[in-house]
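[audit] Reproducing an earlier prediction to check determinism. Same input, same settings, fresh worker. If the tokens differ from the archived copy the diff job will pick it up downstream; this log only records the rerun itself.
[audit] input (243 residues):
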Amino acid sequence: MQYGLLGESWLLGNRRYMSGGRPIIRGMSTVALSRRQERENREREAPNGGSPARHGRFVTAALVLAVVSLMALASFSVALYALPVHVATNPPAGTTSYVNITISYDPATGTSWFTPTNFVVPAHTKVVVTIRNYDPMDSPLLVPWDNQVIGTLGGIEMVGMGNTSSEADMTGLAPGAISHTFTMFDAYYNLSVPIPPAANSSTPALVSFGAEFNTTGTFAWGCMCRCEDMSEPGMMYGSVDVT
């Protein structure tokens, strides 16, 4: 057995072998053999049998790929955030919308009119409509059953005079005690609320009711009493825009 710079070796036939079983090629210098031994050691130490340099290049490439992937994901996230987002039109549960309507009266001409006649309400929402009527005159109904409350939440209206403290739940009014109505009658809505006359020109009748509009679009409403100004636009009829 011989020991040298290359570690343990032995001679078998014409070849000298290292302890690892690899042949030492004849003619190789001690320096060359040392370099070869170092290279072989590095190869054994590197994962999967690859060289450290190759392994380092693999790790670097993996890191670069990971960074590029993260940058691409971030770019996609920003682009996705910038896209228009469809927001549901239904408002949060418990939301209530309010509409205030006034029926004015001119004693000199006996003319009365609703203000506003056209208004917007949100769909799928409880809408509370309050009507103050300053017209002290009663009017005959075009349709006898329009003295009944139809289509409101709970099937009632709140009726008072001058203030809200004396309001009472009503399901209808006597046919001779009606000044106007607020009526919607079509394929989608069947709503009618009778409105009593004012006590006098300074003490209005007060009517309020709740309703829910679940079909969007523009729908007509009108007064179903024999009023002087039934055919005049912006007086006794108008539209409800449900959005």
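[audit] rerun output stored. Observation attached for the diff report: The two ends are 100 Å apart (CA to CA).
[audit] end
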